[in-house]
Every structure is written in structure tokens, then in C-alpha cells.
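[Meeting: bench + compute handoff]

Bench side (C.D.) handed over the final construct sequence. Compute side (W.E.) agreed to return the predicted structure before the next meeting so the bench team could plan truncations. Sequence as handed over:
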Amino acid sequence: MTHTNYLRIGRIEYTNAWPVFYHFADEIRNQQVELISKVPSELNRSLSEGRLDMSAVSSYAYGEGSSSYVLLPDLSVSSFGAVGSILLFMKKPLEEIRNGKIALTTASATSVNLLKIVMQKFLGGSPSYVSAAPDLEQMLKENDAALLIGDDAIRASWAELPYEVMDLGQAWRDFTGEGMTFAVWAVREAVTSRYPELVRGVNEAFQRSKERSMKDLSPVIEEAMKRIGGTASYWRSYFTGLQYDFGQSQWNGLQLYFRYAKELGLMNQDVHLRIWTDNTVVQVNS
């Protein structure tokens, strides 16, 4: 529950969101906030249940709760092509995988449903799915392919494994010509009404944090090398290959994702992007 002048904010644990969060604590200064780090699926649930006031969440989770949420402007985790950390590892050729058995990470609804769109709408397949812990070896014991996301996918991509790999960001671009937005910054709409100045201050701090990171990625890269491994060149390529803005290009790709999800019965409602700016909510139309 929100207390006066106090916001509980969800932070995605994965490195893909680090440039937005890295300098946030410095930039928020004396504002009263609490950052809570979890994987996307746990943040999604906490925001929907009101245990968070604001969070970086899976885009799919925003779609499910869009009637109660608004989006902070110009903040996302997106890619226009390869994302590098949402990967399908395949023991068999794709032609067989599309009607085979796929193990899914339970960590992100956006990626799971993106895979289902690719398999069903673009490849005409109908695979069977099973949820599993993010252990690639175990996932592939009884399945033909396995979906990993975030740092689990990155670590697996570094190993010399005998599997074909599909990058879902690249697959989405290949089939649609659009970019894909994997995470957005959502706020419970009631919170923006009750504490507009605090929300404004938090939004501005996120914007400054993002700008500082993209101006000089060195400290973010050093932290990633220390905590995850890998080389400086890998992380520089990874972070610069992602997009942290949320403008017309990202809106177009995300609205198409929501449209396909509804067409395939993966989402039961039309989704409109409702963006909060200076206590005004603007709806983005297709």
C-alpha cells in the first residue's frame, strides 16, 4: 500500500534494464522510494495486487492490467532486431520444433507469448508447452527446445552448446518489420492521481539515470562483468543493441504484438497505450 510521499517501485533484476536503473538512486535524491528487485513475472504480480505502486514490468503484464495502469513516457526495454537475451535453444530443426515440445521459462509472460505468436501465426505450428525452471540441460532432457530469457539466456549463449538458437527479437523483426518492446514502466493510475508530484520526480530521475548511462556505459559494463561475467566488448554491444526509449517506433511494434496476442486468444481484451506526462494521460491510437 502506498503511504504519503512514499512509493514502492519494482526493479527488473535482469541486466537488460540496468541502464535505466543504474543511476536512479543517485538521481532520486531525497524522494521517499523503496526499490524492490525481482524477475519480471514476480513484479507483474506484485503490481497487479497493489504491493507495488510502480514497476518496470513485462509488456504483456501492462496489456493485462492496462485499464488500471498508465505508462511513464520514453522508458522501455526494446530492440529493433536481435535482443541477445530472449533465446530459443533448439535440439531439432525449426520445421520440427514448430509442432514439437517446448520448455518455457516462467520468468516473463511477454517472451512466452511472443514465442507463441511466432510459432502459431508466423510458422503455422502448434507445439506443446511445459513450464520449467531456467536450467537449459534439464529443460532439454525431454523437450525439443527451451526458451530462456535475461541473464540465464546470456550465460547459455556463451557456452559452446550444440543447439540452434533463435533470437526472438530478430524473429519478430524478420516477420513483421517492426521492433519489439519487452518491458515498460507502468504506474497504478490511482497513484498518479494521488501523488502527481512524487510520480513526476521519479519519472525525471529515471530519465536522468537513463541519459547518464547511455552517455557513459563504462560503470554499467563493469558491474555486469563483475556480477555476470563476459567481456567489456560483449556488454557494450549488448547494451547499445537495446533501446530504452518509448516513442512512435516502439509504440507501433508493441501495438502489433497486442493485436496478434488478442487474435490468437493469448489476451482477452484490446489494449491501448496510455502514457502519463505531467499528470495528463494521453492514449496512443493505432
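W.E. noted at the follow-up: The chain has a mean pLDDT of 92. C.D. will use this when planning the next construct.
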